[in-house]
Protein backbone atom coordinates (compact mmCIF):
# COMPACT_ATOMS: atom_id res chain seq x y z
CA UNK A 1 0.00 0.00 0.00
CA UNK A 2 2.94 2.36 0.54
CA UNK A 3 3.18 2.89 -3.24
CA UNK A 4 -0.16 4.72 -3.13
CA UNK A 5 1.19 7.57 -0.99
CA UNK A 6 3.61 10.37 -1.87
CA UNK A 7 5.95 10.10 1.11
CA UNK A 8 9.66 10.77 0.82
CA UNK A 9 11.19 7.26 0.54
CA UNK A 10 13.48 8.12 3.47
CA UNK A 11 10.60 9.17 5.73
CA UNK A 12 8.44 6.90 7.91
CA UNK A 13 5.06 8.37 8.86
CA UNK A 14 3.60 7.00 12.09
CA UNK A 15 1.54 10.13 12.69
CA UNK A 16 -1.33 9.78 10.23
CA UNK A 17 -3.78 10.81 12.94
CA UNK A 18 -2.44 14.36 13.13
CA UNK A 19 -2.86 15.72 9.60
CA UNK A 20 -3.94 12.75 7.52
CA UNK A 21 -2.38 11.97 4.14
CA UNK A 22 -4.43 11.48 0.96
CA UNK A 23 -3.54 8.54 -1.28
CA UNK A 24 -2.18 9.43 -4.71
CA UNK A 25 -5.45 8.45 -6.48
CA UNK A 26 -7.25 11.01 -4.30
CA UNK A 27 -4.60 13.60 -5.07
CA UNK A 28 -4.94 12.93 -8.80
CA UNK A 29 -8.73 13.16 -8.65
CA UNK A 30 -8.41 16.47 -6.79
CA UNK A 31 -5.98 17.79 -9.40
CA UNK A 32 -8.37 16.85 -12.20
CA UNK A 33 -11.19 18.61 -10.38
CA UNK A 34 -9.02 21.68 -9.81
CA UNK A 35 -8.27 21.84 -13.55
CA UNK A 36 -11.97 21.49 -14.28
CA UNK A 37 -12.76 24.41 -11.98
CA UNK A 38 -10.21 26.65 -13.69
CA UNK A 39 -11.61 25.87 -17.16
CA UNK A 40 -14.76 27.79 -16.21
CA UNK A 41 -14.82 29.12 -12.63
CA UNK A 42 -18.22 30.75 -13.02
CA UNK A 43 -19.86 27.64 -14.37
CA UNK A 44 -18.39 25.55 -11.57
CA UNK A 45 -19.26 27.84 -8.65
CA UNK A 46 -22.66 28.89 -9.97
CA UNK A 47 -23.94 25.61 -11.44
CA UNK A 48 -21.79 22.49 -10.96
CA UNK A 49 -20.77 22.92 -7.32
CA UNK A 50 -24.14 22.42 -5.61
CA UNK A 51 -25.13 18.98 -6.98
CA UNK A 52 -21.55 17.75 -6.51
CA UNK A 53 -21.60 18.88 -2.87
CA UNK A 54 -25.00 17.23 -2.36
CA UNK A 55 -23.63 13.91 -3.63
CA UNK A 56 -20.85 14.04 -1.02
CA UNK A 57 -23.29 14.92 1.76
CA UNK A 58 -25.57 12.06 0.73
CA UNK A 59 -22.70 9.58 0.80
CA UNK A 60 -21.32 10.80 4.11
CA UNK A 61 -24.74 10.76 5.74
CA UNK A 62 -25.22 7.12 4.81
CA UNK A 63 -21.71 6.32 6.02
CA UNK A 64 -22.28 7.76 9.51
CA UNK A 65 -25.87 6.60 9.88
CA UNK A 66 -27.62 9.94 9.49
CA UNK A 67 -29.85 11.80 7.02
CA UNK A 68 -28.47 14.11 4.35
CA UNK A 69 -30.48 17.08 5.64
CA UNK A 70 -28.64 16.72 8.98
CA UNK A 71 -25.13 16.76 7.48
CA UNK A 72 -23.01 19.67 6.20
CA UNK A 73 -19.33 20.15 5.39
CA UNK A 74 -16.99 22.64 7.05
CA UNK A 75 -13.24 23.24 6.94
CA UNK A 76 -12.17 21.19 9.98
CA UNK A 77 -13.25 19.98 13.41
CA UNK A 78 -12.13 23.17 15.16
CA UNK A 79 -14.36 25.20 12.83
CA UNK A 80 -17.23 22.80 13.55
CA UNK A 81 -16.74 23.27 17.30
CA UNK A 82 -16.78 27.02 16.80
CA UNK A 83 -19.97 26.84 14.73
CA UNK A 84 -21.81 24.84 17.38
CA UNK A 85 -20.61 26.67 20.50
CA UNK A 86 -21.01 30.18 19.09
CA UNK A 87 -24.55 29.51 17.90
CA UNK A 88 -25.86 28.81 21.40
CA UNK A 89 -27.49 31.87 22.94
CA UNK A 90 -25.62 31.95 26.24
CA UNK A 91 -27.38 33.50 29.22
CA UNK A 92 -26.68 34.11 32.88
CA UNK A 93 -26.65 30.78 34.72
CA UNK A 94 -25.81 28.53 31.76
CA UNK A 95 -23.05 25.95 32.25
CA UNK A 96 -20.47 24.72 29.74
CA UNK A 97 -18.71 21.43 30.52
CA UNK A 98 -15.32 20.58 29.05
CA UNK A 99 -12.77 17.81 29.56
CA UNK A 100 -9.14 17.95 30.61
CA UNK A 101 -8.26 15.93 27.49
CA UNK A 102 -10.12 18.20 25.07
CA UNK A 103 -8.10 19.03 21.93
CA UNK A 104 -6.43 22.40 22.43
CA UNK A 105 -8.19 24.14 19.52
CA UNK A 106 -11.60 23.03 20.79
CA UNK A 107 -10.64 23.90 24.37
CA UNK A 108 -9.73 27.43 23.26
CA UNK A 109 -13.17 27.75 21.70
CA UNK A 110 -14.64 26.83 25.08
CA UNK A 111 -12.42 29.43 26.75
CA UNK A 112 -13.42 32.12 24.26
CA UNK A 113 -17.10 31.42 24.78
CA UNK A 114 -16.52 31.91 28.51
CA UNK A 115 -14.44 35.05 27.95
CA UNK A 116 -17.16 36.62 25.80
CA UNK A 117 -19.95 35.40 28.08
CA UNK A 118 -18.54 35.89 31.59
CA UNK A 119 -21.93 35.19 33.16
CA UNK A 120 -21.74 31.46 32.28
CA UNK A 121 -19.93 28.84 34.36
CA UNK A 122 -17.27 26.38 33.15
CA UNK A 123 -17.07 22.88 34.59
CA UNK A 124 -14.02 20.69 33.92
CA UNK A 125 -14.23 16.89 33.85
CA UNK A 126 -10.75 15.54 34.55
CA UNK A 127 -9.40 12.40 32.89
CA UNK A 128 -6.00 10.89 33.70
CA UNK A 129 -4.90 7.73 31.89
CA UNK A 130 -4.50 4.81 32.36
CA UNK A 131 -8.13 4.39 33.43
CA UNK A 132 -10.74 1.80 32.41
CA UNK A 133 -13.92 2.55 30.47
CA UNK A 134 -16.03 1.46 33.43
CA UNK A 135 -14.21 3.98 35.63
CA UNK A 136 -14.65 6.70 33.00
CA UNK A 137 -18.41 6.14 32.77
CA UNK A 138 -18.75 6.05 36.55
CA UNK A 139 -16.74 9.23 37.16
CA UNK A 140 -18.44 11.04 34.26
CA UNK A 141 -21.89 10.25 35.63
CA UNK A 142 -20.82 11.40 39.09
CA UNK A 143 -19.38 14.62 37.68
CA UNK A 144 -22.49 15.41 35.66
CA UNK A 145 -24.84 14.70 38.56
CA UNK A 146 -22.73 16.83 40.91
CA UNK A 147 -23.15 19.94 38.74
CA UNK A 148 -25.64 22.27 40.47
CA UNK A 149 -28.61 22.75 38.19
CA UNK A 150 -29.07 26.42 37.33
CA UNK A 151 -32.30 27.95 38.53
CA UNK A 152 -34.71 29.52 36.07
CA UNK A 153 -34.92 33.32 36.17
CA UNK A 154 -36.80 35.97 34.26
CA UNK A 155 -33.60 36.66 32.29
CA UNK A 156 -33.03 32.96 31.64
CA UNK A 157 -36.26 30.97 31.95
CA UNK A 158 -34.72 27.83 30.45
CA UNK A 159 -31.09 27.55 31.66
CA UNK A 160 -28.97 24.95 29.87
CA UNK A 161 -25.92 22.79 30.36
CA UNK A 162 -23.76 21.94 27.34
CA UNK A 163 -21.09 19.23 27.51
CA UNK A 164 -18.22 18.97 25.01
CA UNK A 165 -16.80 15.44 25.00
CA UNK A 166 -14.46 13.38 22.83
CA UNK A 167 -15.22 10.18 20.99
CA UNK A 168 -11.51 9.48 20.49
CA UNK A 169 -9.12 11.62 22.50
CA UNK A 170 -6.35 13.22 20.45
CA UNK A 171 -3.57 12.86 23.02
CA UNK A 172 -3.55 10.21 24.29
CA UNK A 173 -5.14 8.44 21.32
CA UNK A 174 -7.85 6.70 23.33
CA UNK A 175 -11.33 5.55 22.29
CA UNK A 176 -13.76 6.74 24.96
CA UNK A 177 -17.11 5.10 25.79
CA UNK A 178 -18.68 8.16 24.22
CA UNK A 179 -22.02 6.59 23.36
CA UNK A 180 -22.56 5.75 27.03
CA UNK A 181 -21.50 9.30 27.93
CA UNK A 182 -24.00 10.72 25.43
CA UNK A 183 -26.71 8.59 27.01
CA UNK A 184 -25.83 10.01 30.44
CA UNK A 185 -26.18 13.51 29.00
CA UNK A 186 -29.59 12.57 27.60
CA UNK A 187 -30.71 11.22 30.97
CA UNK A 188 -29.57 14.38 32.73
CA UNK A 189 -31.08 16.82 30.22
CA UNK A 190 -27.70 18.06 28.96
CA UNK A 191 -26.70 18.92 25.39
CA UNK A 192 -23.88 16.67 24.12
CA UNK A 193 -21.33 18.11 21.67
CA UNK A 194 -19.12 15.25 20.46
CA UNK A 195 -15.68 16.09 19.10
CA UNK A 196 -15.20 13.06 16.86
CA UNK A 197 -12.27 14.46 14.89
CA UNK A 198 -10.62 11.02 14.71
CA UNK A 199 -13.74 8.87 14.31
CA UNK A 200 -14.78 8.80 10.66
CA UNK A 201 -12.72 6.18 8.84
CA UNK A 202 -11.43 4.71 12.10
CA UNK A 203 -14.51 3.93 14.19
CA UNK A 204 -16.82 1.31 12.72
CA UNK A 205 -20.64 1.34 12.92
CA UNK A 206 -21.06 4.96 13.96
CA UNK A 207 -24.87 4.94 13.49
CA UNK A 208 -25.56 8.46 14.76
CA UNK A 209 -29.32 8.09 14.52
CA UNK A 210 -29.04 5.38 17.14
CA UNK A 211 -26.37 7.06 19.30
CA UNK A 212 -28.30 10.37 19.22
CA UNK A 213 -25.62 12.94 20.08
CA UNK A 214 -26.95 16.48 19.99
CA UNK A 215 -24.02 17.62 17.83
CA UNK A 216 -21.19 15.59 16.28
CA UNK A 217 -18.31 16.43 13.94
CA UNK A 218 -15.34 14.62 12.41
CA UNK A 219 -12.40 15.36 10.11
CA UNK A 220 -12.59 13.63 6.73
CA UNK A 221 -8.95 14.41 5.94
CA UNK A 222 -7.63 12.24 8.77
CA UNK A 223 -8.66 8.58 8.68
CA UNK A 224 -11.07 8.80 5.73
CA UNK A 225 -8.23 9.79 3.29
CA UNK A 226 -9.85 12.97 1.89
CA UNK A 227 -7.71 15.90 0.83
CA UNK A 228 -6.79 18.27 3.64
CA UNK A 229 -8.90 19.94 5.04
CA UNK A 230 -12.52 18.88 5.30
CA UNK A 231 -14.90 17.94 8.11
CA UNK A 232 -18.47 16.70 8.42
CA UNK A 233 -20.83 18.33 10.93
CA UNK A 234 -23.94 16.48 12.05
CA UNK A 235 -26.83 18.41 13.58
CA UNK A 236 -30.08 16.44 13.99
CA UNK A 237 -33.26 18.22 13.00
CA UNK A 238 -34.32 18.63 16.62
CA UNK A 239 -31.35 20.97 17.21
CA UNK A 240 -31.09 22.79 13.90
CA UNK A 241 -32.94 25.79 15.30
CA UNK A 242 -29.87 26.35 17.51
CA UNK A 243 -27.34 26.50 14.64
CA UNK A 244 -28.51 29.53 12.72
CA UNK A 245 -25.29 30.31 10.85
CA UNK A 246 -22.09 28.73 9.69
CA UNK A 247 -18.65 30.23 10.12
CA UNK A 248 -18.11 32.61 8.52
CA UNK A 249 -21.70 33.74 8.12
CA UNK A 250 -22.68 33.21 4.51
CA UNK A 251 -24.56 35.70 2.33
CA UNK A 252 -27.21 32.96 2.21
CA UNK A 253 -27.97 33.59 5.89
CA UNK A 254 -31.52 34.61 6.76
CA UNK A 255 -32.58 36.17 10.04
CA UNK A 256 -34.93 34.09 12.21
CA UNK A 257 -38.45 34.21 10.80
CA UNK A 258 -37.32 35.29 7.35
CA UNK A 259 -37.54 32.81 4.45
CA UNK A 260 -34.50 31.83 2.42
CA UNK A 261 -34.22 33.60 -0.95
CA UNK A 262 -36.12 31.58 -3.55
CA UNK A 263 -33.16 31.59 -5.95
CA UNK A 264 -30.95 29.80 -3.41
CA UNK A 265 -33.58 27.18 -2.73
CA UNK A 266 -33.83 26.59 -6.47
CA UNK A 267 -30.05 26.36 -6.89
CA UNK A 268 -29.55 23.84 -4.16
CA UNK A 269 -32.74 21.83 -4.82
CA UNK A 270 -33.19 21.59 -1.07
CA UNK A 271 -36.32 19.42 -0.84
CA UNK A 272 -36.61 20.06 2.89
CA UNK A 273 -32.88 20.71 3.18
CA UNK A 274 -33.12 24.47 3.77
CA UNK A 275 -31.08 24.42 6.98
CA UNK A 276 -27.99 23.34 5.05
CA UNK A 277 -28.18 26.12 2.45
CA UNK A 278 -26.03 28.69 4.35
CA UNK A 279 -23.29 26.04 4.65
CA UNK A 280 -23.15 25.42 0.91
CA UNK A 281 -21.36 28.69 0.18
CA UNK A 282 -18.91 29.84 2.89
CA UNK A 283 -17.37 32.33 0.50
CA UNK A 284 -14.73 31.66 -2.12
CA UNK A 285 -12.61 28.78 -0.80
CA UNK A 286 -10.85 25.77 -2.24
CA UNK A 287 -13.72 23.33 -2.65
CA UNK A 288 -11.64 20.37 -3.84
CA UNK A 289 -11.12 18.96 -0.30
CA UNK A 290 -14.90 18.71 0.16
CA UNK A 291 -15.39 16.99 -3.18
CA UNK A 292 -12.38 14.71 -2.69
CA UNK A 293 -14.44 12.72 -0.19
CA UNK A 294 -15.99 10.71 -3.04
CA UNK A 295 -12.58 9.78 -4.42
CA UNK A 296 -11.38 8.89 -0.92
CA UNK A 297 -14.34 6.61 -0.29
CA UNK A 298 -13.93 5.03 -3.74
CA UNK A 299 -10.30 4.27 -2.89
CA UNK A 300 -11.28 2.72 0.44
CA UNK A 301 -13.79 0.47 -1.31
CA UNK A 302 -11.16 -0.52 -3.89
CA UNK A 303 -8.66 -1.41 -1.15
CA UNK A 304 -11.18 -3.76 0.43
CA UNK A 305 -13.57 -1.65 2.48
CA UNK A 306 -13.88 -0.44 6.04
CA UNK A 307 -13.63 -3.80 7.80
CA UNK A 308 -10.48 -4.83 5.93
CA UNK A 309 -8.76 -1.47 6.43
CA UNK A 310 -9.53 -1.20 10.12
CA UNK A 311 -8.79 -4.82 10.93
CA UNK A 312 -5.29 -4.35 9.54
CA UNK A 313 -4.73 -1.00 11.27
CA UNK A 314 -6.07 -2.14 14.64
CA UNK A 315 -4.02 -5.34 14.65
CA UNK A 316 -0.91 -3.36 13.70
CA UNK A 317 -1.57 -0.72 16.38
CA UNK A 318 -1.87 -3.40 19.04
CA UNK A 319 1.11 -5.49 17.92
CA UNK A 320 3.19 -2.42 17.10
CA UNK A 321 2.43 -0.89 20.48
CA UNK A 322 3.53 -4.03 22.30
CA UNK A 323 6.71 -4.29 20.23
CA UNK A 324 7.54 -0.62 20.79
CA UNK A 325 7.02 -1.00 24.55
CA UNK A 326 9.41 -3.99 24.53
CA UNK A 327 12.11 -1.97 22.78
CA UNK A 328 11.65 1.00 25.11
CA UNK A 329 11.34 -1.13 28.23
CA UNK A 330 8.05 0.57 29.14
CA UNK A 331 4.33 -0.19 28.73
CA UNK A 332 1.30 0.49 26.57
CA UNK A 333 -1.39 2.71 28.06
CA UNK A 334 -4.30 0.40 27.21
CA UNK A 335 -3.44 -2.82 29.01
CA UNK A 336 -6.97 -4.26 28.86
CA UNK A 337 -7.29 -7.81 27.54
CA UNK A 338 -9.67 -6.69 24.81
CA UNK A 339 -7.88 -3.43 23.89
CA UNK A 340 -11.17 -1.64 24.58
CA UNK A 341 -9.59 1.80 24.14
CA UNK A 342 -7.34 1.05 21.14
CA UNK A 343 -8.40 1.45 17.53
CA UNK A 344 -5.81 2.59 14.97
CA UNK A 345 -3.67 4.54 17.45
CA UNK A 346 -1.69 3.16 20.35
CA UNK A 347 -0.03 4.91 23.28
CA UNK A 348 3.34 3.82 24.64
CA UNK A 349 5.24 5.30 27.57
CA UNK A 350 8.63 6.83 26.74
CA UNK A 351 11.71 6.08 28.88
CA UNK A 352 12.00 9.63 30.19
CA UNK A 353 11.93 9.90 33.97
CA UNK A 354 12.06 12.75 36.45
CA UNK A 355 11.96 15.54 33.87
CA UNK A 356 11.56 18.86 35.75
CA UNK A 357 8.37 20.75 34.98
CA UNK A 358 10.31 23.61 33.42
CA UNK A 359 12.05 21.17 31.04
CA UNK A 360 8.97 19.44 29.62
CA UNK A 361 8.74 21.82 26.66
CA UNK A 362 12.48 21.42 26.05
CA UNK A 363 12.15 17.61 25.97
CA UNK A 364 9.21 17.75 23.55
CA UNK A 365 11.09 20.14 21.26
CA UNK A 366 14.16 17.89 21.18
CA UNK A 367 12.01 14.87 20.42
CA UNK A 368 10.32 16.72 17.57
CA UNK A 369 13.52 18.03 16.01
CA UNK A 370 15.62 14.88 16.33
CA UNK A 371 12.90 12.56 15.06
CA UNK A 372 11.99 14.69 12.04
CA UNK A 373 15.35 16.16 11.03
CA UNK A 374 17.78 13.41 12.00
CA UNK A 375 15.88 10.11 12.07
CA UNK A 376 13.29 10.91 9.35
CA UNK A 377 10.48 9.33 11.33
CA UNK A 378 7.67 10.70 13.44
CA UNK A 379 4.91 9.80 15.88
CA UNK A 380 3.11 12.22 18.18
CA UNK A 381 4.61 12.59 21.66
CA UNK A 382 3.22 14.35 24.71
CA UNK A 383 3.31 14.66 28.48
CA UNK A 384 0.29 13.25 30.30
CA UNK A 385 -0.41 12.35 33.91
CA UNK A 386 3.22 12.66 35.01
CA UNK A 387 4.73 10.67 32.11
CA UNK A 388 5.96 11.16 28.55
CA UNK A 389 4.12 9.11 25.94
CA UNK A 390 4.11 8.56 22.19
CA UNK A 391 1.02 7.98 20.06
CA UNK A 392 1.93 6.07 16.89
CA UNK A 393 -0.79 5.80 14.26
CA UNK A 394 -1.11 2.53 12.36
CA UNK A 395 -2.10 2.88 8.72
CA UNK A 396 -2.30 0.48 5.79
CA UNK A 397 1.00 1.83 4.47
CA UNK A 398 2.76 0.92 7.75
CA UNK A 399 4.18 -2.40 8.95
CA UNK A 400 5.68 -3.75 12.18
CA UNK A 401 9.23 -2.81 11.18
CA UNK A 402 8.19 0.87 11.25
CA UNK A 403 7.45 0.54 14.96
CA UNK A 404 10.82 -1.13 15.51
CA UNK A 405 12.63 1.73 13.74
CA UNK A 406 10.57 4.16 15.79
CA UNK A 407 11.71 2.39 18.95
CA UNK A 408 15.37 2.63 18.00
CA UNK A 409 15.00 6.35 17.31
CA UNK A 410 13.22 7.01 20.61
CA UNK A 411 15.84 5.09 22.60
CA UNK A 412 18.60 7.23 21.14
CA UNK A 413 16.84 10.58 21.50
CA UNK A 414 15.61 9.88 25.04
CA UNK A 415 19.17 9.03 26.11
CA UNK A 416 20.35 12.34 24.61
CA UNK A 417 17.69 14.26 26.54
CA UNK A 418 18.51 12.54 29.83
CA UNK A 419 22.21 13.20 29.34
CA UNK A 420 21.55 16.89 28.66
CA UNK A 421 19.28 17.23 31.70
CA UNK A 422 21.85 15.49 33.91
CA UNK A 423 24.58 17.82 32.66
CA UNK A 424 22.45 20.90 33.30
CA UNK A 425 21.44 19.80 36.79
From TrEMBL:
Domain Aminotransferase class V: 53-334
Organism whose genome encodes this protein: Phlebiopsis gigantea (strain 11061_1 CR5-6)
One Pfam family of this chain: Aminotran_5
InterPro entries given in the database record: Aminotrans_V_dom (IPR000192), PyrdxlP-dep_Trfase (IPR015424), PyrdxlP-dep_Trfase_major (IPR015421), PyrdxlP-dep_Trfase_small (IPR015422)
Gene3D superfamilies named in the record: Aspartate Aminotransferase, domain 1, Type I PLP-dependent aspartate aminotransferase-like (Major domain)
Keywords, in A-Z order: Pyridoxal phosphate
Taxonomic lineage of the native organism: Eukaryota, Fungi, Dikarya, Basidiomycota, Agaricomycotina
Source taxon at top rank: Eukaryota
Protein name: Aminotransferase class V domain-containing protein
Amino acid sequence: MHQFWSFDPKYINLNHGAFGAPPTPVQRASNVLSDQIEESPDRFFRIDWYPMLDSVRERLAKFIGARKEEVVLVQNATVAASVVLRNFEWRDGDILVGMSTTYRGVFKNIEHVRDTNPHITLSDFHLGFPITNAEIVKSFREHIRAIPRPAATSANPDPKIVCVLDSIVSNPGILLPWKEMVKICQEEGIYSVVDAAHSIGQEMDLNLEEAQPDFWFSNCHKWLYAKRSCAVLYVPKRNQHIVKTGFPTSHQYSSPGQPLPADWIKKTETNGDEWAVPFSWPGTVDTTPYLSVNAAMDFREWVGGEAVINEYCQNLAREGGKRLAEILGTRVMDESATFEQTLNMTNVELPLRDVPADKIEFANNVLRDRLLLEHKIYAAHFYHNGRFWTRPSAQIYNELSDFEKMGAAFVKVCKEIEATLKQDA
